[in-house]
UniProtKB/TrEMBL annotation:
InterPro entries: PIG-X/PBN1, PIGX. This is Phosphatidylinositol-glycan biosynthesis class X protein. Its main location: endoplasmic reticulum. GO terms for cellular component: endoplasmic reticulum membrane. The chain crosses the membrane at residues 218-239. The lineage of its organism: Eukaryota, Metazoa, Ecdysozoa, Arthropoda, Hexapoda. PANTHER family: PHOSPHATIDYLINOSITOL-GLYCAN BIOSYNTHESIS CLASS X PROTEIN. GO terms for biological process: GPI anchor biosynthetic process. Pathway: Glycolipid biosynthesis; glycosylphosphatidylinositol-anchor biosynthesis. The keyword Methyltransferase does not apply. Belongs to the PIGX family. Keywords: Endoplasmic reticulum, Glycoprotein, GPI-anchor biosynthesis, Membrane, Signal, Transmembrane, Transmembrane helix.
Length: 263
């Protein structure tokens, strides 16, 4: 086996340095999306902060964050309606979300968050976690949120100025289907002017929540205890009511006797 000569080692080091530099330049060329989620609680907020490249900020464009939410997560449409009325949020979401059903009966859905590439203010989305059906094997359920996708749409004059390297697939265009809060892929740019943008995702902590799960093994003891307490409380109320009625009747009878004596 031959050892590498000094020139060969230098060449390999040079190639490796070029590769690292190319990767760093590519990362700097892309924008950055930071995503944070409150660490605890059944009611949390997702916070999105997007830093676009200067080439994108100088264009007249708007963007949409497409966030897929699993069945274990729901939104309060009334809460989001209020935020939109106060101009604290610009979003598209289902008109009705059943907040009462458990995770096993719910379905995933998407929320679309709109913004302007010229504005750097973070976007906050309030979310809530559903309860799970009781289990005999686990006491915690892990709920993972998928990373969002970012779409961009620019005016006709600026559309051609977007660097193709910033787009996920520069020849693919999407229509915004607001009724289903989703994007539909199309091939005609004239009809659909949304394109998927490449972003560097920076998530400090995994978007995972641990939700308590009821213990199904305690169903029978809890049921028996509930029945005993319920029936005991019912009997106590009946006896107390009967005593009160007797006491009231006795007082009324005494008052009638006093009135008869006075007459």
């Amino acid at each position: 086996m031959k050892c590498l000569t000094n020139p060969a080692i230098l060449i390999l080091i040079f190639i490796a340095a070029l590769s690292v530099n190319s990767i760093n330049c590519h990362a700097l060329h892309q924008g950055v999306m930071r995503i944070e989620m409150d660490p605890v609680g059944m009611h949390r907020k997702l916070k999105y902060t997007i830093e676009f490249t200067e080439a994108i900020r100088n264009l007249n464009c708007e963007y949409v964050i497409a966030q897929q939410l699993p069945a274990a997560v729901y939104i309060s449409t009334d809460e989001l309606d209020d935020l939109q009325r106060l101009k604290m949020l610009n979003a598209k979401y289902p008109k009705f979300v059943d907040i009462e059903i458990i995770t096993e009966k719910a379905k995933p859905f998407s929320v679309l968050l709109r913004g302007s590439t010229k504005i750097k203010d973070p976007i906050q989305l309030p979310i809530h976690f559903r309860y799970h059906a009781a289990s005999r094997t686990t006491t915690l359920a892990k709920v993972k949120l998928d990373s969002p996708e970012l779409y961009i749409s620019c005016t006709n004059d600026d559309k051609q100025l977007i660097d193709k390297a910033l787009l996920d697939e520069y020849d693919k265009f999407y229509c915004l289907d607001e009724s289903s809060t989703d994007f539909v892929e199309q091939s005609e740019m004239e009809k659909c002017n949304w394109q998927r943008l490449r972003m560097e995702l920076r998530i400090d902590k995994p978007l995972i929540a641990e939700i308590p799960v009821g213990d199904a093994n305690g169903y029978i003891p809890v049921l028996c205890a509930t029945l005993i307490i319920s029936w005991g409380a019912t009997v106590w109320i009946m006896l107390t009511t009967r005593k009160a009625c007797k006491r009231i009747n006795k007082q009324l009878a005494e008052e009638e006797l006093q009135e008869e004596k006075l007459e």
